[in-house]
């Protein structure tokens, strides 16, 4: 027995010695680089965020914004937002891409060779952070992405501080532009699938975002002076050739994800009654691009929408009586973009600012440019009498027309339509058919269940501040 113990002890020593000798050399994977190249990470962040949020915006955001409705698997459409189904859980998309973007930002500040990435990384951080906090309200921000420093349960920061403080949304846009303008190196920006390395494109993108976020907080503070300066400088996205977008392809793997859904899942989404009424009132030609005629049509030109939030168990629906979404979202996605920021959205924001008296500008010209850019974006010819007839600014409430046109144009970004409805009240969304939220339209997304499990103490405080993680508690810029 003693002999066996000696042999076993010797084996342990031999194994231990074998494991520790040349440890670093043996345990280094030659196919895995020690440090990541920011060009590869930038491409990954832009594509992953754009691809995933385009799908999220369509499957879940379009339900909240009442662009489409779901025939089945529709607890989310009935406003049980804690039950994501085909979509409805964007939280991990935000944090994964914000984490990777933070690596780019850190590399840009640590190495002169990567300095060119600082501006775009700050601008992307502002963009993704704004979308995150506008959906959820208070979220982990300033302490997030510090796991390597021991912070694995970050506190929730107030939305106001995320917008307004140093290294917050507005500050990062300012610092991002400054970093680009101060850059005098010869190394080009690689991995940029939005602007192909054109730094001036990033500056225009940042200025359009600044217009957007100033309008978003305009109920909380005076934004007029800065908006007027941005308008006068005119260094924002002016036409579709300058849009912050990247193209999907016509086939896998880089086509729009809706094209890869099973036919049954695709057929789950039809035009909403809200969208049907707004497009019909405008006599809008985009209806034939965004949706398909009903199968039961004798003429092949009839469209029909369904009120959001039916109880599928008690309301039988004949699919052929309602309009499915257009071929651009499934069979022909090569004409579709992942849309970060556009000329059409910028012009509608400026038109709203002019209509509200925040800036001195020609409201009608900004509005008509927005409509023209939106039709061109969706590759639909603008009818000659549209802007003097049903689509005229003064045909009804000018502000409602501006915001309704922006809502239509943003169908690929359904969460944006819902966010802007919460901010402005337009377009007028409907009380849904079989609400699971007491007939209230939600005004924020709920924190996901994994936060309660993984970041409990901080989650608990955030939940207390939102009446138990309620979807009916307004975010900061939406408070009266």
TrEMBL record:
<feature type="signal peptide">
    <location>
        <begin position="1"/>
        <end position="21"/>
    </location>
</feature>
<dbReference type="Pfam" id="PF12771">
    <property type="entry name" value="SusD-like_2"/>
</dbReference>
<keyword id="KW-0449">Lipoprotein</keyword>
<dbReference type="InterPro" id="IPR041662">
    <property type="entry name" value="SusD-like_2"/>
</dbReference>
<keyword id="KW-0732">Signal</keyword>
<protein>
    <submittedName>
        <fullName>SusD/RagB family nutrient-binding outer membrane lipoprotein</fullName>
    </submittedName>
</protein>
<dbReference type="InterPro" id="IPR011990">
    <property type="entry name" value="TPR-like_helical_dom_sf"/>
</dbReference>
């Amino acid at each position: 027995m003693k002999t066996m113990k000696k042999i076993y002890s010797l084996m342990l020593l031999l194994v231990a010695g074998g494991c520790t000798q040349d440890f670093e050399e043996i345990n280094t994977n030659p196919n895995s680089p020690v440090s990541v190249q920011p060009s590869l990470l930038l491409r990954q962040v832009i594509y992953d965020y754009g691809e995933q949020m385009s799908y999220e915006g369509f499957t879940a955001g379009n339900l909240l914004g009442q662009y489409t409705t779901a025939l089945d698997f529709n607890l989310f459409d009935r406003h049980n937002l804690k039950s994501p189904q085909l979509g409805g859980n964007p939280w991990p998309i935000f944090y994964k891409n914000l984490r990777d973007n933070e690596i780019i930002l850190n590399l840009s500040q640590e190495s002169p060779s990567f300095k060119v990435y600082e501006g775009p990384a700050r601008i992307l951080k502002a963009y993704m952070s704004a979308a995150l906090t506008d959906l959820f309200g208070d979220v982990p921000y300033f302490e997030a992405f510090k796991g390597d420093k021991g912070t694995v349960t970050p506190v929730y920061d107030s939305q106001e501080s995320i917008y307004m403080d140093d290294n917050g949304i507005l500050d990062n846009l300012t610092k991002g532009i400054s970093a680009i303008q101060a850059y005098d190196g010869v190394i080009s920006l690689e991995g940029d699938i939005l602007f192909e390395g054109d730094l001036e494109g990033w500056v225009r993108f940042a200025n359009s975002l600044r217009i957007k976020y100033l309008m978003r907080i305009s109920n909380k503070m005076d934004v007029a002076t800065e908006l007027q300066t941005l308008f006068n400088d005119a260094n924002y996205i002016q036409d579709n050739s300058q849009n912050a977008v990247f193209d999907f392809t016509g086939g896998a793997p880089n086509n729009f994800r809706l094209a890869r859904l099973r036919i049954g899942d695709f057929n789950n989404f039809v035009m909403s009654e809200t969208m049907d009424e707004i497009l019909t009132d405008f006599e809008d030609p985009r209806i034939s691009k965004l949706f398909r005629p009903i199968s039961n049509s004798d003429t092949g030109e009839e469209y029909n929408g369904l009120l959001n939030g039916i109880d599928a168990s008690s309301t039988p629906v004949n699919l052929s009586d309602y309009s499915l979404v257009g071929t651009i979202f499934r069979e022909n996605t090569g004409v579709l973009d992942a849309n970060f920021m556009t000329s059409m959205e910028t012009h509608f924001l400026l038109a709203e600012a002019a209509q509200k008296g925040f800036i001195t500008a020609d409201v009608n010209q900004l509005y008509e440019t927005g409509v023209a850019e939106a039709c061109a974006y969706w590759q639909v010819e603008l009818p000659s009498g549209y802007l003097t007839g049903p689509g005229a600014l003064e045909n009804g409430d000018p502000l409602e027309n501006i915001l309704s046109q922006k809502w239509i144009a943003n169908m690929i970004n359904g969460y944006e339509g819902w966010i802007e409805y919460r901010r402005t009240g337009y377009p007028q969304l409907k009380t849904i058919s079989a609400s699971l939220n007491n007939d209230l339209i939600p005004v924020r997304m709920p924190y996901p269940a994994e936060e309660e499990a993984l970041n409990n103490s901080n989650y608990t405080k955030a939940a207390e501040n939102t009446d138990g993680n309620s979807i009916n508690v307004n975010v900061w810029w939406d408070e009266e």
